[in-house]
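Q: what does this look like with pyridoxal-5'-phosphate bound?
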Amino acid sequence: MIPVCEPLINNNELNNVMDCVKSNWVSSMGKYIEVFEEGFSHYCGCKYGISTTSGTTALHLALAVLNIGPGDEVIVPTFTMAATVFAILYTGAKPVFVDSEPDTWNINPFKIEEKITNKTKVILPVHIYGHPCDMNLINSLAKKYNLFVIEDAAEAHGAEYFGRKAGSLSDIGCFSFYANKIITTGEGGMIVTNNEEFARKARLLKNLAFLPEKRFVHLDIGYNYRMTNIQAAIGVAQLEKIDYLVEARRRNAKMYINLLSEQPGITLPIELENVKNVYWMFGILLTDRSGTTRNSLMSELRKRGIETRTFFYPIHSQPAIKDMGYTPNESFPVADSLAERGLYLPSGSGLTAEQIAYVCDTVKEINYLYE
Ligand SMILES: Cc1ncc(COP(=O)(O)O)c(C=O)c1O
């Protein structure tokens, strides 16, 4: 089976992990944490990096740093992974959903302003599948209405917008290092920022708000969102090859695009001008002109040894959310249609040219067979 995504882990990760184990630095203190935080934040072009246990906790921590809570509203795309919205719900704030752009699949920046109220505190764009959002428009709206911006850059390690890295384009950027991400620590996450006060507060809150001057005294309610030294040790080794891993994603995408561009009924991902898409996952959409449907294409591919995934199901339609009353009488036609028609093909940085050629030949064959 060609997996939809696999991490690339080798001896460097193993040696670093052995170092932690042999030296007994297995918990959240130890040399790798700082090296990883400094290395990754520097890679993103940010002064500060604060590691966490996951992308989900990075998002929650970012919102907590900005004091977001009950009575506040956070603007977010409905087409995203559930964690983006769950993190908002953990704070007691209300998620306010916005539909997507049909071409980048990101939050539609032209539909944000109509959702801003006097309760809005944050805009939380998500760089879906590695294509940066239109941050100039989003940041100018935030400035106009005095709002914070948090980027969910979980899927966009190394992506760029006008030459600047995703995660560095707003008040706080949030990353995930889950095993399918471009670099991984197994589980893990990080927030990056250029704001010293946000960094100080994030460090405090992620460590149960132990007062630095007086241990076991707590002025705030904190969380245990501490990454372990073992996770950071893997992250340090991954960071050494991040340029290779990003370029491999882009090379794979180029090959997919070359081989599939003439296919009737298949829409491919795009890369807008002044943007670097890292194609975290190589998503495609089936249009009405396709010879098959999304679900039958997926099951036929599986029969031929190719693993795929559907696109996200929009959050407004999730059973856990839809009865909460956040979207009365609202529709999100673009997000709904992406969810219905989208799938992603194998996308790991370790894919070979032969594997991609096989996937494309198989997609064409199925598309043709069912035409
Ligand atoms: C857009 C987005 N946000 C947040 C997350 C959550 O990250 P984690 O799984 O590390 O908690 C993910 C994970 O896939 C994601 O894709």
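The two ends are 26 Å apart (CA to CA). The chain has a mean pLDDT of 96.
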